[in-house]
Design a protein that fits this description.
The protein has about 400 residues and is mostly helical. It is built from 14 helices and no strands.
Length: about 400
């Protein structure tokens, strides 16, 4: 079991490297270097999420009935690698292909998202209720460390080290993609999935297992339904801000790429530590109680980042946010199995991933509306942050409706 956990955590580490490189540097390459509007980048995330949401029912149905996850993870990881590899080469070797590059980025992001339909349910295979938050925290910690690595290992390329093509932010993408591919290999080829008997799905007629029936099967159960609604809202807020954090630092505080990278690395190191510590706390003191207090603190963090204009004064707030960032995902992931009814347990994490990725549809839309209406300057970003805080508040109200299996 320790080997399987190691491979699982290493994969989370690997995929976060390429995620960070593209979120951190592709967004700035497209918006700052190529002069495209910020909503263009967010639209790519929206379209990728739409494609993912309409794919998820069929994929999760197959996982639920066969219990086979590693095969699908292998193929979609290969697709993700090839898509990001093509992107990284096109960006540094061609000119005036921003439209096609954005389309390819959308498709590569879609493939990346599908991987998590197979990867996330593996948490059930690696844990029991008593240690699930802690095991989930280990995975989240590996993810955060991978994000740090994605920033640090690519920084020399951003600052002038050139493999081919012109120097600049785009140089970070190719090495990050290669590292992702190499470190994914142990999970793809050494992880041994225990074979279990197929089970009957929640919706027996595969032809009717579409998006509507998929969500009906989940929202028939109030505890799970309200939790996923809340998760949809607060993950919406946190993911949208994380995706736009480099642009926020550039627009609001005009910091250099080196400062952005160092600050992000510090935040993510603390997120890794917070994931493990709060995982232990959640298992002992209550998962729901831990999650609620964490989200309550995030409301004040968003307000502070919107209203405080002194960058030095914000640094402690950024670091405090880092400690609380990882636990949101680690504890939430462990809560899904606690709330899902027994016959939905096998695919409960697929619903969780769908809720998370549907959030990446509304979040960028809200953020883009703020920038379009208030301008792509300080006022626009301040408005966006306040709107994200309101989403967390609404999510907290939804959590009050969660009843049943979880102690608050």
């Amino acid at each position: 079991m320790k080997k399987k956990l190691t491979y699982w955590a290493l994969y989370d580490f690997a995929n976060s490297i390429v995620l960070m490189a593209f979120l951190f540097y592709f967004s700035q390459w497209l918006v700052i270097d190529q002069g495209k509007p910020a909503w263009w980048y967010n639209t790519a995330l929206i379209v990728a999420s739409i494609l993912f949401i309409f794919t998820a029912p069929a994929v999760s149905k197959r996982i639920d009935t066969t219990r086979v996850k590693i095969v699908g993870l292998r193929w979609w990881t290969i697709a993700t690698f090839l898509g990001h590899l093509a992107l990284s080469l096109l960006i540094v070797l061609t000119d005036n292909l921003e439209v096609w590059i954005t389309i390819l980025y959308t498709l590569a992001t879609y493939a990346y998202l599908v991987c998590f339909l197979y990867f996330t349910p593996m948490l059930n295979d690696l844990s029991v209720s008593e240690n699930r938050s802690w095991i989930s925290g280990i995975g989240q910690s590996a993810n955060s460390i991978g994000l740090v690595t994605g920033v640090l290992v690519t920084l020399p390329f951003v600052n002038g080290l050139t493999l081919f093509g012109d120097p600049g932010r785009a140089q970070a993408l190719f090495p990050a993609t290669i590292i992702f591919g190499a470190l994914s290999l142990p999970m793809l080829f050494l992880y041994r999935e225990e074979k279990g008997a197929p089970v009957s799905g929640v919706v027996s007629d595969t032809s009717r297992h579409n998006l509507i029936t998929f969500f009906k099967s989940v929202f028939a159960y109030k505890p799970l339904a309200f939790f996923l609604l809340a998760y949809f809202l607060f993950s919406d807020a946190l993911l949208t801000f994380a995706n736009n954090f480099p642009l926020y630092l550039e627009t609001m505080h005009h910091v250099t790429d080196t400062v952005k990278s160092a600050l992000t690395a510090g935040i993510l190191v603390l997120a890794a530590i917070g994931s493990v510590i709060f995982g232990k706390i959640a298992d002992k003191k209550g998962k729901m109680k831990t999650l609620k207090w964490t989200l309550f603190a995030w409301c004040f963090i968003f307000v502070a980042m919107a209203l405080v204009t002194n960058f030095r004064a914000l640094i402690p707030i950024f670091l405090f946010a880092g400690i609380l960032y990882g636990p949101v995902w680690g504890v939430s992931r462990s809560l899904v199995a606690e709330l899902a009814p027994p016959h939905l347990l096998a695919s409960s994490y697929s619903y969780y991933v769908v809720a998370e990725r549907f959030a990446t549809f509304v979040g960028p839309a809200v953020w883009s509306i703020a920038l379009i209406t208030m301008g792509e300057g300080v006022r626009g970003y301040q408005t966006g942050l306040i709107l994200l805080m309101l989403l967390v508040v609404i999510g907290l109200f939804a959590l009050r409706k969660v009843e049943g299996k979880v102690t608050v």
